[in-house]
Specification:
With about 475 residues, the chain is of the alpha/beta class. The chain folds into 2 domains: about 260 residues, 3-Layer(aba) Sandwich (Rossmann fold); about 200 residues, no CATH class. It has 18 helices and 19 strands. The strands form 4 sheets. A 9-stranded mixed sheet has the order 3-2-1-4-5-7-6-8-9, with helices on both faces. Strands 10-17-14-15 form a 4-stranded antiparallel sheet. A 4-stranded mixed sheet has the order 11-16-12-13. Strand 1, helix 3 and strand 2 form a beta-alpha-beta unit. Helix 14 crosses helix 17 and helix 17 runs antiparallel to helix 18. The longest helix has 21 residues. The chain is elongated and about 85 Å long. It starts with a helix and ends with a helix.
Length: about 475
């Protein structure tokens, strides 16, 4: 079986010993004799065996006996680990006692508590998203792990971490997808359950590729169990390893109010500065709506489902007056995914300007990554929609810079100079709902018509601050940025 097959079937991404030596060993080197070092998803053992390189040769065997336990579900990996351990001059009987073949996702090896030292778990567990597991016959055997007390979790790595929680493991180092920190639906329940019991000591987040066969962004996270479960703000610092820059040190505050998701300042802004009369937002111009509203008015659209040679297919449709007015009066669309260039970042655009058509039609399935036409209630004038676009994109870019885009979801690897991000439709709706145009009186609308774009946006932000009783977000800072 080739590695790429293992990746799909086992969620396996083998870690190099270099990762351990550079990022993990400096954090544990003073305590090597204080713990039982275990890896329950060990692969070739590259997160444990390097410890032996720092133990005198004449002490390695007794150290291995008392301080190391390795396990994996794959027999070939266990055989490889046994071979490596014997090459360290460890007696074969000791090796086979401390290296075991077993399914540790299914149940935790409780016998490791019988060793004389407390457990310190360092691992790169399997990760396969539940949606992928359901869709592929060769991985559906893993559905059993998501039953019972694990119902609601979304990835194999979450099952591994919950096993540690339920077995009172105090010290953890996990190499896992960075959606642990930044993901929404994929991680919300898990973070809420897990982080009331653990505090985060430190993280490394990689915006560079460290595994050959995955486009998943990875973080190394150092965790310590709390004395008592408690929902509280978690404060820690993290180091970001970027593509073309030096490492960046960031201070994080994860708040239970926002499901411990990094980048919560953006969500605070959405919550505390929602307009008194928010706009209602609907997405997509669907084929079934065209079929129900046929008429004699011709308009040109693009087909969001047909993209070829870097452009969308254009064609004309014939519709009635009502639908024509609806399409013509809603000029905005959202592109949710960064294209990879500075002028192709996620944000709101104008359909006519970017595609030279009236509408964006979905002829088949809806996809969140396609350009999506926005329909607003009540209707705004063309001028007001243009203001909304400028306001939306300015505030979005402010938070992207302030939070290093961490409130967005990493899309996938590319050769772009920056890490591409995805802006969720719920986030789009929330930001549009802060636009206070319906709260403006006639006099205010007359005022903004005589202002420059920057002056208009600052006027809107000032209105948000004046209408809010909460000072959680400093609007003045956003104004100075814009």
């Amino acid at each position: 079986m080739v590695l790429s097959d293992n990746r799909r079937i086992f969620g396996e991404h083998l870690t190099s010993s270099r990762i351990f030596e550079k990022y993990i060993f400096p954090e544990i080197k003073e305590n090597l004799y204080d713990y039982l070092w275990i890896d329950l998803y060990a692969g070739e053992g590259n997160l444990i065996f390097p410890i032996l390189n720092h133990i005198p040769k004449n002490k390695r065997e007794i150290f291995f006996k008392d301080h190391i336990f390795i396990s994996d579900i794959q027999k070939k990996m266990i055989n490889k680990c046994i071979e490596i351990a014997i090459n360290y001059d460890i007696d074969e009987n000791i090796v086979k006692k401390n290296i075991k073949l077993r399914d540790n996702l299914k149940n935790f090896p409780e016998f490791v508590h019988e060793f004389k030292y407390p457990i310190y778990h360092i691992t790169n567990p399997p990760y396969l998203y539940l949606g992928y597991i359901r869709k592929n016959q060769e991985t559906q055997k893993y559905l059993q792990y998501f039953d019972g007390e694990n119902k609601g979790y979304q990835d194999l790595y979450q099952i591994a971490m919950m096993n540690d929680l339920r077995n009172n493991i105090s010290n953890l180092v996990y190499i896992i997808p960075s959606n642990f920190l930044f993901g929404a639906s994929v991680s919300n329940k898990f973070r809420e359950d897990f982080l009331k019991c653990y505090k985060i000591l430190k993280t490394y987040t990689f915006e560079t590729k460290i595994f050959e066969f995955t486009g998943t962004n990875i973080c190394i996270i150092f965790l310590k169990r709390k004395k008592y479960p408690k929902n509280e703000n978690l404060k820690f610092y993290g180091i970001k390893i970027k593509k073309q820059k030096n490492s960046v040190i960031k201070n994080y505050i994860l708040k239970p109010e926002f499901k411990y998701r990094a980048g919560s300042e953006f969500y605070e802004f959405l919550k505390y500065y929602q307009a008194k009369s928010p706009l209602k937002v609907k997405y997509y111009l669907l084929q079934k709506e065209i079929s129900k509203n046929k008429g004699n008015n011709k308009i040109e659209v693009i087909d969001a489902n047909k993209y070829h040679n870097n452009k969308y297919k254009k064609f004309k449709i014939k519709i009635n007056n009502s639908l024509k007015n609806k399409i013509d009066s809603n000029i905005l669309y959202i592109h949710t995914v960064d294209s990879g260039s500075d002028d192709g970042r996620a944000g709101i655009g104008i359909v006519k300007e970017d595609f030279n058509v009236n509408g964006i039609l979905v002829t088949r399935n809806t996809y969140r990554t396609h350009p999506i036409q926005i329909f607003l209630t009540p209707s705004l004038s063309i001028y007001e929609q243009s203001l909304l676009k400028d306001y939306f994109n300015s505030v979005l870019e402010y938070f992207r810079e302030k939070l290093d885009s961490e409130f967005l979801t990493t899309y996938k690897y590319s050769n772009a100079d920056y890490t591409r991000k995805y802006f969720g439709l719920t986030q789009v709706r929330g930001l549009i709902e802060t636009f206070p145009i319906l709260d403006f009186k006639k006099k205010q609308k007359e005022i903004i018509k005589n202002l420059t774009q920057k002056e208009v946006i600052n006027y809107i932000l000032s209105n948000l601050k004046n209408n809010s009783n909460n000072e959680k977000i400093e609007i003045r800072i956003i104004s100075s940025y814009i």
